[in-house]
Write a structure and sequence with these properties.
This protein is an alpha+beta fold. It is 17% helix and 28% strand. The protein has helices spanning 8-12, 30-38, 91-98, 148-155, 163-175, 179-182; strands at residues 41-48, 53-58, 63-68, 75-81, 84-88, 107-109, 117-124, 137-140, 190-198, 205-208, 217-222, 226-232, 252-258. A hairpin with a 6-residue loop joins strand 9 (190-198) and strand 10. It is globular. The mean pLDDT is 96. The chain binds zinc ion (ZN). Residues 76, 145-146, 162-163, 233, 235, 242 line the site of zinc ion.
C-alpha cells in the first residue's frame, strides 16, 4: 500500500459537500395529493406471489400502494412510462438527488432525456426506522436487483427466480414479448421494504432483516401514466440470502386507487426535462 502523505490527516478532514443540493427541486404538493387520496376509490389490485413478479397499470393522477401481507417480504419495483418504455425509473439519479434510501415526499425520477418525476411517495409506514447503528435504512436505491448472472458468477448456480428473471417473465407476459425482448426493459429497482446500507469498514453493500411487518405499506402518487412491475424477492425479508429457495417468502399486495373527478384541480403531469439536447453543437 502507498505510504500516506504527511498531510493525510488534513486531507481527510476536509468537510464533504453535497453533490446535488435538492432544495431547488420542484416540491410535490403533498397536501393536494393527500386530499385527493382521501376520496379515492380502489380500481385494481394484484397479488404478487412469492418468488414471482406481476405487472400493473396506474394512470397519471392515481395512487398505488404496496403492502406487506402474511409475513415480512421485500419487493423489487420497476416503473416505465406506460406509452414509452424508453422512459423508465432511474435508480442512480434518484439516489444522487435524494440519497441512498427514499421515503415520504421524495420522488422516483425517470431516465434521460426525460428526467422528471414518475411517482411521488405520499406515505411510508416504515419512516420511523431512520438510519440504524449499522448505517442501514429502508427502501433503497443502491442495490440493483438480485439476478441470475451474479449468482452464476459468484456461486456457479443456475437459479431462475431472482427478481431480474421474475420481472423479465412478468414484462414478457404483460406485453406479449419473448423473454429476450423483455429482458432489456428490466432495470435497476427501488428495493421496497429492503433494509440495506454500506459497511463502514469495507464499503460493501449489506442487507439485514427488513423491519417490515404485515400491514406496512409504501404508497405513491403516479405523476405520469405508469406500467409497474413488482417482484416478491426470493430473499423474503432478506435476512440471510436471496438467490435460492431457502428463505421464507410471502406475497405482496399492490392496490391502485383513483381520486374523485376534479379532486386534483388543474394538476398536470410534469413536463419532460427542459435541457435543449444540443450537447454543445
Ligand atoms: Zn430480489
Amino acid at each position: 500500500m502507498t505510504h500516506a502523505p504527511a498531510d493525510a490527516v488534513a486531507r481527510r478532514a476536509v468537510a464533504p459537500v453535497i453533490c446535488y443540493p435538492n432544495d431547488t427541486l420542484p416540491a410535490p404538493d403533498l397536501a393536494l395529493y393527500r386530499a385527493a387520496r382521501e376520496g379515492a376509490g380502489k380500481v385494481a389490485e394484484v397479488v404478487v406471489a412469492p418468488r414471482e413478479a406481476a405487472c400493473f397499470l396506474v394512470g397519471a393522477g392515481q395512487f398505488f400502494r404496496i403492502t406487506s401481507v402474511e409475513g415480512p417480504q421485500v419487493g423489487d419495483l420497476n416503473l416505465w412510462n406506460a406509452h414509452d418504455l424508453s422512459e423508465r425509473f432511474y435508480s442512480g439519479k434518484t439516489r444522487a438527488l435524494h440519497g441512498t434510501h427514499v421515503t415520504t415526499g421524495e420522488r422516483l425520477w425517470s431516465s434521460f432525456p426525460h428526467l422528471r418525476p414518475m411517482a411521488t411517495i405520499i406515505a411510508d409506514t416504515l419512516d420511523w426506522y431512520g438510519i440504524d447503528d449499522f448505517g442501514g435504512s429502508v427502501h433503497d436505491v443502491i442495490g440493483t436487483r438480485c439476478d441470475p448472472y451474479t449468482g452464476t458468477l459468484l456461486s456457479g448456480v443456475q437459479y431462475h427466480h431472482c427478481c431480474h428473471s421474475n420481472l423479465t417473465r412478468a414484462v414478457a407476459d404483460e406485453l406479449g414479448m419473448s423473454l429476450s425482448e423483455a429482458e432489456p426493459h428490466v432495470h435497476d429497482v427501488l428495493n421496497v421494504f429492503m433494509c440495506t446500507g454500506f459497511t463502514r469498514d469495507t464499503g460493501q453493500y449489506f442487507m439485514k432483516a427488513s423491519p417490515v411487518r404485515p400491514g406496512d405499506h409504501l404508497e405513491f402518487f403516479a405523476e405520469i401514466d405508469l406500467l409497474g412491475a413488482l417482484s416478491a424477492c426470493p430473499g423474503g425479508d432478506c435476512s440471510s440470502e436471496h438467490t435460492s429457495d431457502t428463505a421464507a417468502c410471502f406475497p405482496l399486495l399492490v392496490e391502485v386507487f383513483a381520486p374523485a373527478p376534479g379532486a386534483l384541480g388543474d394538476w398536470q403531469s410534469p413536463p419532460r426535462n427542459g435541457y435543449d439536447r444540443s450537447h454543445g453543437r
